[in-house]
User: What shape does this take?
Amino acid sequence: MKIPDIACSEECLLRAGNTNCGGCGMSLGLNFLARALAEADETCQLAIPACCGIVAAGAFPTTAYSVPTVATTFAAAAAVASGMAAIRDLNGETHQVICWAGDGGTYDIGLATLSAAAERNEDIVYVCYDNEIYGNTGGQRSSATPPGARTTTTPAGKREAKKDIVGILAAHGVPYAATVSIAHPDDAARKFRTAFETTGTSFLLLHSPCPTGWKSEPGDSVHLVRLAVRSGLFPLYEVFDGVRYRINDAPDWTDPGEYFARQRRFATDAVDLDATRASCRRRFARLETLAEAFPA
Assistant: This one.
């Protein structure tokens, strides 16, 4: 599928002059977000914790973001966004309050405030661009790092499984949670719009390739996340109210070997492909069971 052209103008969410690397999935994700805001005739304010997303703004007093943006501490993005939403509502305003956070500030350091905001059902949109490492601080492992991936703190490859963050948010009963791929732009745009239309906490998990941390070619970024969807490594689905499930794109069970081979963060023998294939099929079978028993 061809990635749609997104014209750059004064209304661009991420403007020229940002510090993002070539092939950065987060940059594409921000452009998709900008497209969805424009199509929905929405405006937004951003809360961004310590991560590549806030470094992208550039050096003070200039900024590459075209909307009001608050830089928060690593742990506080959801808490700050809760305050921003409260002020919005007190002032009778209608803009979206959006957290834009990496996996380190979501799966790990920011999980407590995210959980608290979800439990209160704050009217915010929380987007985790998941590049599966602490990309801003040198490429350390996070609990989003997949098994076998080499990072600066797991030079022999990570041993533990990746945390199921969508399952955790679904367990909070949030009104809307979904996975998003930059290789599926129409699906991504629809999910952003659904999040905007939802009252209460919406959580979107964006698979975000990082050529620097993944040791991949910048031109491969979209291809890699497409392979992740096709092989079942990153299923596309939605969860409503923590109960109702909808699968958006079924895997065709493309062999995941190419996905791993195109990233030098995985040693040749670091990934058990047979076990990976079996794990992907078990996980998708579970999603199919949930979607059949509790359809959206």
